[in-house]
Amino acid sequence: MKQKIFTTDILIVGSGIAGLLAAIELSKEKEVMLVTKGALGTGNSNRAQGGIAAALGNKDSLALHALDTLAAGHGYNNTNTVKNVINQSPRIMEALFSSGVLFDVDEQGKYHLTKEGAHSCRRIFHAGGDATGYHIMKQLKYQVKENVQVLEHFMVYDLLMEEEECAGIRGKDADGRCCTILSSAVVLAAGGCGQLYSITSNAEESTGDGLAMAYRAGARLVDMEFMQFHPTMLYADGKGAGLLSEAIRGEGGILVDEQLQPIMEGKHELKDLAPRSVVAKTVYETWKSGRDVFLSIKHIPDFTRKFPSIAAQLHAHHIDIEKGLLPVRPGAHFMMGGIEANEYGQTDTKGLFAIGETACTGMHGANRLASNSLLEGAASALLLTERLLTQPMKARRRRTMWPVSSFAEDIPSLSELQERMDAWAGIVKEENRLLRMKEWLSSYIAFIFSPASTELSKQQLTIKNLLAAAWMVTNAALVRTESRGAHLRTDYQEEKPEWSGFSIYWEERDHDPVVKKNKEREASHEYITP
Ligand code: SIN
Questions:
Q1: Residue 83 contacts residue 55 (beta carbons within 8 Å)
Q2: Which end of the chain is more exposed for a tag (fewer CB within 10 A), N or C?
Q3: Is the CB of 309 within 6 Å of ligand 1?
Q4: What is the mean pLDDT of residues 496-502?
Q5: Ligand 1: does its nearest atom lie under 6 Å from the Cβ of 417?
Q6: Average pLDDT of 74-99?
Q7: CA-based nearest residue to 159, from 1, 359, 353, 388
Q8: DSSP 484
Q9: What confidence category does residue 520 fall into, taking pLDDT thresholds of 50, 70 and 90?
Q10: Domain boundaries in the chain?
């Protein structure tokens, strides 16, 4: 079949809040093309329940929001990024209000704000009760279609590199035809890798494609050991059945065991609204000790009105809301690590930009504060736009010959990979199990890190990318011999000062990570301990 070739000024890969907002803003001045693996906007942003954190309430301040973000991040954030992103909140909310997103209001017509874990006050804007992502994305999808050429069901499988610069991408369109897209700038907004685990809040497109491609192209990645697990995934019919928002606990929900004993009692002063890693670990350990865990909603008045989408989800799984006990397990939720980028999306590779969950800007440190991800995605889309529109673009490349790898026949299935990640590199990790995971992945190493082959199907390419993400998550987790934020080790249970300010990098296409001092992370600890 003949290869199709497109050219554009800017190519955006992914259609979450970061990708769509960047496409809308950039297309005001540039020719923009957007490709997305599923249908437009069906990824994680669309699923966001809780909302978007923005310190616009009377008793709140941008500084307080920054302090909460740094405290949740365990002194491991990039302080300047945190300040810069949070300072964008008024501008972002203004843009969302004026684009027609109807955030929920109270009886007086004022915006109703909710509270989630580790926030010191109510500052979460939400829409449709618990359908914030859906309402934001609905407006953005409408706007993007007007000005941007969109290719849906398009899987990008490798970046085109010329003399160490990114010159475009190679991918397969909806009909499986091979395509090349040449562009002056490639913006990866392709999400995280939650599909590494069997219980996940993530969309099926969250398969680490952006992370794996960037790595194979030689871009630098960092913090891949910091995978956040959400404490409360609904567990029904023997599997994860969707997220139960932290906002439920913000409204009075309590985690209990099968004897109705509150499990967060004595674990943290904030109890059920403790930082996410603390709650997720407690849910996990309670379940591992043989006791089922439930989110009790008995004391929440008007549950169905406040959480209509979740109520519908419970109904679909025949769970009786009146009984008020929702079965939960923790599930993979958000990758704090990713392609190293600043808040403007700039990476160490010329022509390559990364925003949203695909990027690691240091905003979230070792543990993301709830509802900060829509904020970061939107902020980096706006900041990237400013950068790209004010700096000269490099010329588009013309050559289209790039190497391809050979076909690999023995590719594991998704469930095989997930079962192993659950067992050996799950929420609470230890050396022996991580080593088993590493050993299993080692047999695929040549396949994982070679450029993609046009002979592979989209599903095989997806597994290739997930294996690459699994390799980075497992090895980085093995190297970090401490527990910090979302990175929990049973054999190294304490946070160690000697790890402060050190990051684990993936660079120069090396198969092993390198540990280096990270100056930008050192400052944040001083900022939160006055
Ligand atoms: C939730 O609604 O609990 C998820 C919010 C988030 O992860 O930011």
A1: no
A2: C
A3: no
A4: 93
A5: no
A6: 95
A7: 353
A8: B
A9: confident
A10: 4-189+345-389, 232-330
Ligand 1 nearest-atom number relative to CA 50:
2
With the C-alpha atoms ordered 462, 466, 469, 475, is the resulting torsion angle positive or negative? Answer: negative
pLDDT of residue 521: 83
Q: Are 103 and 126 in contact (CB under 8 A)?
A: yes
Q: How far apart are CA 355 and CA 202, in angstroms?
A: 17
Q: Which residue's CA is minimally distant from atom 1 of ligand 1?
A: 245
Residue 49 Cα to ligand 1 midpoint, Å, equals: 6
- For residue 49 and ligand 1, the question of a CB distance below 6 A is answered with yes
Fold of 4-189+345-389: FAD/NAD(P)-binding domain (3.50.50)
Task: Measure 373 CA to ligand 1 centroid, in angstroms.
Answer: 9
What 3 state SS string does 364-425 have? CCCCCCCCCHHHHHHHHHHHHHHHHHHCCCCCCCCCCCCCCCCCCCCCCCHHHHHHHHHHHC
> Is pLDDT above 50 for 530?
no
Q: Tell me how far the alpha carbon of residue 92 lies from the centroid of ligand 1, in angstroms.
A: 18
Ligand 1 pocket residue status of 374, Cβ below 6 Å: no
Pocket of ligand 1, candidates 333, 367, 375: which has the most ligand atoms within 8 Å of its Cβ, to mutate? 333
Computed over every residue of the chain, the mean pLDDT equals 93
Q: What is the 3-state secondary structure (H, E, C) of 57-118?
A: CCCCCHHHHHHHHHHHCCCCCCHHHHHHHHHCHHHHHHHHHHCCCCCCECCCCCECEECCCC
CA gap 305, 481 in Å, rounded: 45
Closest CA to 157 of 78, 223, 210, 117: 210
Determine the residue type at 406: S
Q: Compute the C-alpha angle 461/346/217, nearest 5°.
A: 30
The token pair at 53 is 């954190």
pLDDT of residue 391: 82
Amino acid in position 106: D
- Residue 475 Cβ inside 6 Å of ligand 1? The answer reads no
- State whether CATH 3.90.700.10 applies to domain 232-330: yes
Cα(406) to ligand 1 centroid in Å equals: 41
Is there a contact between 267 and 410 (Cβ–Cβ < 8 Å)?
no
Q: How far is the CA of 299 from the centre of ligand 1 (A)?
A: 21
Q: And the tokens for 178?
A: 């091979």
Nearest atom of ligand 1 to the alpha carbon of 371: 8
Contact 200 CB / ligand 1 (< 6 Å): no
Atom of ligand 1 nearest to the CA of 130: 2
